[in-house]
Design brief:
alpha/beta, Rossmann fold, four-stranded parallel β-sheet
């Protein structure tokens, strides 16, 4: 693995962020997760009825609960993220900010547009790094990122088989470390972990469930669900596997077109839309739940998340049509909010037995 210069840390907040570009410029990608001990201060700048994810990130910025940053990358994924970029410029004016427009659809025209946005990011980071964009080793950064994705997928497979000590909570801790430190450090940790013998513990006797939603980075949230009798057999959140989908550099397209096409193939969140299959999100949830053998589905979304609120009726209808029970939970990026749902989770699991 070829080492790249460490030119500082570039923060980001969205699973659609092109991590290989940040790494190719010699920076360490650092996801600002909506968790930590920073006091609630975002209300000084943002409306109370705004995405808790955004507000917790702003709390961290205002509370100094961050490493020194060389810049921030924001993705125009929703109105709340636009407000986050505005607030960041106010709270941390010393951080160079770049705001990328992410198409809501993924077709040839949209991918060409996003490729131009990725080139704009590469040029911006090259200036910050004091290099020419042509000096970036794209293949090395993609290889490193893909190796990280491969190792995380292997750990996830072990976890789902009941052979990872600490279960789903431990897996989330691995995701959190992988998105907040140099890839080489996580690759070394994961390789050592996978070289050890698998645990001899039997698969949890809990009821198999599939989880989906937008943001749930706290490992203790998963531990709480499993303590209620759930066995998490698969899940889809933008703070876990959705961040780590391998990318490919095709030989017949520019690096930016190839990256744009690969990013477009990531498991989509609710803000994306397919004109040909408007119910794709619902179909994806059903397919994932069936594939993993789940007896039921738990959805966890943040309060005031309009994209998910708009999609949930079709998800519920699709699951009902397949005879798959659904429990919907709302949270605010605190363990307290998920803890308040314990009784509902226990009742749902008991119903599935």
């Amino acid at each position: 693995m070829k080492a790249v210069p460490d030119r500082g840390i570039i923060g980001y907040t969205c699973a659609y962020t092109p991590i290989p570009i940040i790494e190719a410029a010699g920076f360490v990608p650092y996801r600002v997760l909506p968790m930590g001990d920073a006091p609630d201060q975002a209300g000084q700048l943002l409306h109370d009825n705004l995405c808790p994810h955004v507000k917790r990130v702003v709390d961290r910025a205002m509370g100094g609960d961050l490493p020194a940053l060389s810049g921030m990358v924001f993705i125009n994924s929703c109105d709340a993220m636009r407000r986050l970029a505005d607030a960041w410029r106010n709270v941390r004016p010393q951080d160079p900010v770049i705001f990328l427009d992410l198409p809501a659809t993924h077709d040839e025209v949209a991918n060409r547009f996003y490729a131009s946005e990725l080139k704009r990011l590469a040029d911006h980071l090259a200036v910050r790094a004091g290099i020419d964009a042509g000096e970036m080793d794209w293949q090395a950064s993609v290889n490193t990122f893909n190796r990280l994705c491969e190792l995380l997928a292997a750990c996830s497979t072990r976890m789902r088989a009941g052979r990872l000590a600490g279960g789903r909570a431990a897996m989330q801790a691995l995701y959190n470390r992988a998105c907040t430190r140099p890839a080489a450090e996580s690759i070394q940790e994961l390789e050592m972990l996978l070289e050890t013998h698998e645990t001899d513990a039997d698969v949890s006797p809990g009821v198999p469930v599939f989880l989906f939603g937008n943001v749930m980075p706290d490992p203790e949230a998963f531990a709480l669900m499993e303590s209620c009798g759930a066995r998490i057999v698969a899940d889809d959140f933008c703070t876990d596997s959705r961040m780590f989908s391998p990318v490919a550099l095709g030989s017949d397209a520019s690096v930016f077109q190839a990256l744009a096409g690969s990013i477009a193939q990531k498991p989509p969140c609710a803000r994306t839309f397919s004109p040909k299959t408007p119910g794709r999100m619902a179909a994806d949830v059903v397919a994932a739940a069936r594939e993993c053998g789940a007896a039921g589905v738990i959805g966890h979304t943040l309060k005031f998340c309009d994209p998910y609120l708009a999609r949930l009726p079709m998800v519920r209808e699709a699951l009902n049509g397949e005879g798959l029970p659904l429990l919907m939970l709302e949270g605010d990026c605190t363990l307290r909010s998920i803890g308040q749902q314990r009784t509902r989770i226990e009742a749902f699991i008991e119903m599935l037995r």
